[in-house]
Design brief:
Elements (H helix, E strand, L loop, with lengths): L1 E5 L5 E5 L6 E6 L13 E6 L4 E4 L2 E6 L1 H19 L12 H13 L3 E6 L6 E10 L5 E9 L8 H15 L5 E6 L3 H9 L3 E5 L5
Parallel strand pairs: 9-10
Antiparallel strand pairs: 1-2, 3-10, 3-11, 4-5, 4-7, 5-6, 7-8, 8-9
Helix pairs in contact: 1-2
Length: about 210
């Protein structure tokens, strides 16, 4: 977001780079209940007593925690890479404790973590965390949305976005909000095609 420049005379300074990617707050106010089935989307829960992730709709189905944590680490690292700025958080692929802390942090907060499992293999095709933002006029907030690279280009992300509309409609939220880096053109184009519009540049407040 900032770059080092050399002024006349040889002195140097740091200025804001106008070409650096921007973190954009996007909002969709076209909340409606899509008339499609979402049987493949499951709610993930975390058992603090045994440290296992399982599907709420089928408690006997255990989700492979390591795979999910690896996916979240890749999501975090990818967002940092696209930001073009200072890496505020980067997760080493071998740092299992950091990845576990991150994913459990989502599961023990008020966020709902919704996943699309790959059958009963324990692996995950994609995930999305969704929560309520605000109290007087609450809206839906998508704070994480990630698709396993193995399953990209198969409408997994779009399907999760549709489900966010279901959650918003069910809870009487007027809109759904998320953030996206301007440099992440694929995600940005998907969001805009689903009715999301840029409402604010929040680069400096991230």
């Amino acid at each position: 977001m900032y770059k080092l420049i050399t002024f006349e005379g040889g002195s140097q300074g740091i200025i804001k780079d106008p070409n650096s990617p921007k973190l954009l707050k996007m909002r969709c106010s076209q909340v409606q209940y899509p008339k499609i089935k979402f049987d493949d989307i499951k709610t993930l829960k975390f058992d603090t007593t045994c440290g296992k992730c399982y599907i709420e709709q089928n408690p006997d189905q255990i989700i492979d925690f390591k795979t999910l944590a690896d996916m979240y680490a890749e999501f975090i690292n990818g967002e940092n890479d696209r930001s073009g700025g200072v890496k505020s958080l980067r997760v080493d692929q071998d740092d299992e404790s950091m990845k576990a802390m991150l994913i459990v942090g989502i599961l023990v907060r008020d966020d709902g973590l919704y996943i699309i499992p790959d059958g009963d293999t324990g692996f995950v095709k994609g995930f999305m965390s969704f929560s309520q933002k605000g109290k007087n006029k609450p809206i839906g907030l998508i704070s994480n949305l990630y698709v396993n690279p193995k399953y990209r280009n198969s409408r997994i992300g779009s399907h999760l976005l549709d489900y966010a509309n279901v959650l918003a409609s069910t809870n009487n939220f007027n809109s759904v909000e998320l953030k996206c880096w301007s440099s992440n053109k694929i995600a940005f184009d998907i969001y805009t095609s689903r009715g999301f519009k840029v409402v604010e540049d929040v680069t400096e407040t991230k």
